[in-house]
Amino acid sequence: MVHKAEPLMRMMVVTALVCTTCARGAAQAASGTPPPKPKPITYVAPTKDNYLKSAGETETMLQRDVLDVWFPRTVDNQNGGFYASFTRDWQPGKSEGKFSVFQGRMTWISSQVAMRRPELKDRFLPIAEHGIDYLSNVLWDKQYGGFYWGLDDKGQISPHYTDGKHLYGISFGLYGAASAYQATHDPRALKLAQDAFHWIDDHAHDAKNGGYFEWLTREGKVVPGDPDSVTLQGVPLAEFPIGYKSMNTHIHLLEAFTQLYEVWKDDTLRQRLEELLAINRDKICMQPGVMNLYFTNDWRAIPDHDSYGHDVETAFLMVEAEEVLGRGHDPRTEHMAKLLVDHALANGWDDVYGGFYREGTTFGKPESLLKEWWVQMEGLNSLLLMHEKYGRQTDVYFKAFQLQWRLIRDYQTDSEYHGVYEMLGPDGTPLNPNKGRIWKAAYHDGRALLNVSERLRKLAAASN
Q1: Which residues are within 8 A (CB) of 449 and not within 5 positions of it... i.e. 6 or more apart?
Q2: Residues contacting 229, CB < 8 A, separation 6+
Q3: Domains and CATH numbers, the chain
Q4: pLDDT tens track for 122-149
């Protein structure tokens, strides 16, 4: 999977796509054979009844294909934290240990469900507490501070992850802890989130250029890259290039700091949140609605592809940060968020099946026609957000939302064993049947379906 695909894990994607049950879809993707066209979609109008119907459908998917399949089977009652690896029929797969990103995400989603779905609070609050126990007691380095990049199943330092620390992983530990505090009101969770913020700020903030250095030693010393090397020096398990700054880390730091600022109105945190918002909007995002992926430490962009999924995800994250800052929406943020979604629709959208392709170039056609689950879910979320903002002016976003929903409903979810497939070929054939691994948690789909269900009901109420 590539989040570019969380981050750019091209070799892992190649491995994941080797699936004998998916040979037909893989062959079509390789040969460029036109897929059979689905039946034309019948679009519906943005009315109260249609909003409520869609809200019910998305809520059903949230329960059936996210919450009921992941929980409680993901909970590790023996070693703490959460299991990550599951086959198509939700049997345990080969363990990859306890990854900071996965642990933070599962803590976050269980906390959000406990807060936002009162009828599920009794079920999910203990899971959120379980998550914060692991983040605090095991994943947090008691000697030097900071969350480990990852540990083995027993909670020990592993050569698989090394003893290093990456801000991408630490951001999700912070994100999960802040959300857990909202749900549980456990002061230990808030202190953990605050400690994570201070560790990030003390060890990784770039006071000269803004933003953050990303890969650090266990003790918190920045690991420099080799500027003369012409080959990638990547972080373990990811292709974050050591010694450079990345879009992926900085959008998720924005996300995590936004979550923390909801519960802790600290002046330094606000300054850093405002700085991150400006960096993401003004340095990482570019006209005509694309995002650079990697940068030198002084924010010179390094040429690479455009990731449509990150474009639509960041549109939502920037608007969310503006709302939490409570200062009114900056027109520059609104403009860039719209550009990101518009560019992805214009250049990376499948108007036959629906869905956003994986990546392309700024002005060219898509170069990867694969469809990842997180891209489709983030697309669903941002398309409805754009419809809420601009639906009186255009029906483009609501029509795209409906086509996106059809793709997710008819192709991305497993009607037999339930859950969400990680990757689809151009014709909707699943290219990897497995349902879980350390880069695939219940976070993207859980958040999107929570948000979409709630926003649809909000739109329905406004339609009275």
Answers
A1: 58, 59, 61, 62, 66, 377
A2: none
A3: 10-27+45-462 (1.50.10.10)
A4: 999 999 999 999 999 999 999 999 999 9
